[in-house]
TrEMBL record:
The chain crosses the membrane at residues 124-144. Pfam families: TipE. PANTHER family: PROTEIN TIPE, TIPE PROTEIN TEMPERATURE-INDUCED PARALYTIC E. GO terms for biological process: regulation of sodium ion transport. Keywords: Membrane, Transmembrane, Transmembrane helix. This is Protein tipE. GO terms for cellular component: plasma membrane. It comes from Halocaridina rubra. The keyword Membrane applies. GO terms for molecular function: sodium channel regulator activity.
Length: 198
């Protein structure tokens, strides 16, 4: 069980190293809301009938953790309509507000207000099955394509090699002839028209 201890709105990127809720996981934030909560494990109805509108009463209870950070999900961000930060801040930023919550055993200062294990398991299965399935299909396609390719016929190989060799020889002869002509032309020009400077 969580109770909101304090909340504050901050401005400036240096003051917003974290935000309880941010719409858009990649954008820079210059305005953020910090919602601090206290939580207690295994309350067994301990808070029934307790009115925390008197903030001094919050400090009289022995909490398992004080000043934890509240997030809507593990990433602390999302996109509408699944995560609406305006509604989230309105619902959970009032000091004294009590609500069920989930804390992290790895990072005890991290608290989320909602946890849907079935959705998380489904997303995880999709994240594993779809990429691996596409990978296997592409490998099978490549294997079938490779096995189905015909080998070149041996009869035409000799003929093709002879044609390729002739074409290569003619191309090299042409290159050598054109280079020789260019050199001869340059030499003739130098011999007939000497430069004024000698």
């Amino acid at each position: 069980m969580c109770v909101t201890k304090a909340s504050e709105v901050r401005f400036g990127q240096s003051n917003c190293s974290w935000s309880s809720c941010r719409e858009g996981c990649t954008k820079d934030i210059f305005k953020c809301t910090h919602i601090h909560v206290n939580y207690k494990r295994d309350t067994k109805g301990e808070f029934v009938g307790t009115n925390f509108t008197d903030e001094a009463l919050i400090d009289t209870i022995e909490w398992d953790l004080i000043n934890a950070r509240l997030y809507p999900n593990v990433k602390g961000c999302g996109y509408p309509p699944s995560v609406n930060c305006t509604d989230f801040n309105r619902n959970y930023s009032t000091p004294g507000r009590t609500f069920p919550c989930y804390y992290s055993k790895q990072t005890p200062v991290m608290v989320i207000n909602h946890l849907d294990l079935e959705t998380i398991k489904t997303d995880l299965l999709y994240a594993i099955i779809i990429p691996w399935g596409l990978f296997l299909v592409s490998i099978l396609y490549l294997l079938f394509t490779y096995v189905g390719m015909k080998k070149p016929e041996t009869e035409g190989d000799d003929t093709q090699e002879v044609i390729s060799a002739k074409a290569s020889k003619e191309a090299s002869n042409y290159s050598l002839r054109s280079i020789g002509k260019t050199i001869n032309h340059g030499m003739n020009k130098l011999m007939r028209d000497p430069d004024d400077k000698g």
